[in-house]
Write a structure and sequence with these properties.
Elements (H helix, E strand, L loop, with lengths): L11 H18 L8 H8 L7 H8 L3 E3 L6 E7 L6 H16 L8 E4 L11 E6 L3 E2 H6 L6 H20 L2 E2 L8 E3 L5 E3 L6 E2 L20 H4 L8 H16 L9 H12 L12 H9 L19 H10 L10 H5 L5 H10 L5 E2 L5 E2 L23 H15 L7 E3 L4 H6 L9 E2 L10 H4 L4 E3 L9 H11 L2 H5 L4 E2 L9
Antiparallel strand pairs: 1-2, 2-4, 3-4, 5-7, 6-9, 7-8, 10-11, 12-14, 13-15
Helix pairs in contact: 1-13, 4-14, 6-8, 6-13, 8-11
Keywords: ATP-binding, Cytoplasm, Kinase, Magnesium, Metal-binding, Nucleotide-binding, Nucleus, Serine/threonine-protein kinase, Transferase, Wnt signaling pathway
EC number: 2.7.11.24
Protein name: Serine/threonine kinase NLK
């Protein structure tokens, strides 16, 4: 006989009071005080993820660079071939605006943008982001043990970040383990917004179906729905949740039709009401097949981590009808995630803090939302690639900080040439840019990433040197020597 699933989750108010009470118990249990290091608490709660040296080396040679202004290790993302078409250029501009809009612990955002060349030579965009050592896919396929605590903390952070995105009316549309970056302390950030878009409130307007990696694609998209909602992201999270429990892809098929078959094997044949979003051909295909009963009891066989609470939450995420699928807000209120919330806010988050000699201070809003929706009305005003190019160039100029010296790329360096066709920068030798005319700033320095001049106009070498000097701080002066990233593989925080 299959085990009975939970039928009622706690209300939000009950969850909040239980959460705060649980946090107090947890901090008392682990004797939180100003001399008790955060790392020790993490160790007491669960073992941090160990990033293999081989994975770390690969990361360092693919995307890790050192900011020459302060010596900080960061990741450098390249957005290539931006202006191939109007659609692609708008999509890149949208992603760039989103990266600058995001301000959330579990969502990757832009720390800086490299200064682009003049408009005539502007073809690529480079964005500096926080550096995280691994991603959830690498962790899932690794032999490292994942405890129930790991799974709860990871799932809590995914939903916490997704709540922020959905509150801004943003659909990610490509939630998968590889797009969930993780560091060695188990802090997780959602990344890769190349397919993200603002949710379309008008159900009569068609939306593309070429979204979401197949294994994590919601059934309404598989069945040709022309319009979909934030529920597609929840389905993807459910697939990842099942993958964390079973350490294997939950629905792994060779084609979309086979993908749908695997889904119906677990959920059973959907009713016509549940398929109202599907196209006529997909509905006819499903109705021609022999009816199948649900087999949700199979979720208990994923692993010993598949407890009553885990399966209850997973079953609410994997619902065929998107209107009946649990929302991110309701999923965060589920009792299964209470321990994940406690652990995250006891020692991992930045929204809560400890002020000696007092106890830990907790944020009144543990799962914050965006201050306002992300607006995309500007997209309809852009009607040509050249117009988009001008707007992106102008946007980057507005984003560049006036308090820090901008950075630019040196395409003449050997390291740059070796990665030119890749998505991220290889390990580079970095140094300050000094003494080059502004027009030649991107080609004058002998190494990869350099300080860009402060004003985008022709200048003498001497003038440029004075501009750089005027912007330099004490930390800048410490970074003036050349740094060879290839010889500092232990520099990743």
């Amino acid at each position: 006989m299959p085990r009975v699933l939970f039928t009622q989750a706690k209300s939000k108010n009950q969850m909040d009071s239980a959460t705060l009470k649980g946090i107090a118990v947890l901090t008392e249990l682990y004797h939180w005080h100003p001399y008790f290091p955060c790392d020790d608490i993490i160790s007491a709660l669960f073992r941090p993820i160990i990033i293999a040296r081989a994975d770390l080396t690969v990361l360092l040679t693919r995307g890790a660079v050192t900011d020459p202004r302060d010596g900080r290790r960061v990741a450098l993302k390249k957005l290539p071939n931006v202006f191939q078409s109007l659609v692609s250029s708008k999509r890149v501009f949208r992603e760039l605006k989103m990266l600058c809009f995001f301000k959330h612990e579990n969502v990757l955002s832009a720390l800086d943008i490299l200064q682009p060349p003049s408009l005539d030579f502007f073809q690529e965009i480079y964005v500096i982001t926080e550096l995280l050592q691994s991603d959830l896919h690498k962790i899932i396929v690794s032999p490292q043990h994942l405890s129930a605590d790991h799974i709860k903390v990871f799932l809590y952070q995914i939903l916490r970040g997704l709540k922020y995105l959905h509150s801004a009316r943003i659909l990610h549309r490509d939630i998968k383990p590889g797009n969930l970056l993780v560091n060695s302390n188990c802090v997780l950030k959602i990344c890769d917004f190349g397919l993200a878009r603002v949710e379309e409130p008008d159900a009569s307007k068609n939306m593309t179906q070429e979204v979401v990696t197949q294994y994590y694609r919601a059934p309404e998209i598989l069945m040709g729905a022309n319009h979909y909602t934030a529920a597609v992201d929840v389905w993807s999270v459910g697939c990842i949740f099942g993958e964390l429990l079973g350490r294997r892809i939950l629905f792994q098929a060779q084609s979309p039709v086979q993908q749908l078959e695997l889904i119906t094997e677990l959920l059973g044949t959907p009713s016509l009401e549940d398929m109202r979003h599907a196209c006529a051909g997909a509905r006819a295909h499903m109705m021609r097949r022999a009816p199948r009963p649900p087999a949700l009891a199979a979720l208990y066989t994923l692993s010993v981590q598949a407890t009553h609470e885990a399966v209850h939450l997973l079953a609410q995420m994997l619902v065929f009808d998107p209107a009946k699928r649990i929302s991110v807000v309701d999923a965060l209120a589920h009792p299964y995630l209470e321990e994940g919330r406690l652990r995250y806010h006891s020692c991992m988050c930045k929204c809560c803090y400890s002020a000696p000699p007092a106890a830990r201070h907790y944020s009144p809003d543990l799962e914050p939302v965006a201050p306002h929706p992300f607006h995309d009305g500007w997209e309809r005003k852009l009607t040509s690639v050249h117009q988009v190019k001008e707007e992106i160039h102008k946007f980057i100029a507005e984003q560049l900080s006036t308090s820090r010296v901008p950075l630019c790329i040196n395409p003449q360096s050997a390291a740059f040439k070796s990665f030119a066709s890749g998505p991220v920068l290889t390990a580079l030798r970095l140094q300050l840019h000094r003494g080059a005319p502004v027009g030649a700033a991107a080609v004058a320095a002998p190494v990869g990433m350099t300080r860009a001049p402060a004003r985008a106009r022709q200048a003498t070498p001497g003038l440029l040197r004075r501009e750089v000097t005027a912007h330099r701080t004490h930390s800048d002066a410490l970074a003036c020597t050349t740094i060879d990233d290839a010889t500092h593989t232990s520099a990743v925080p």
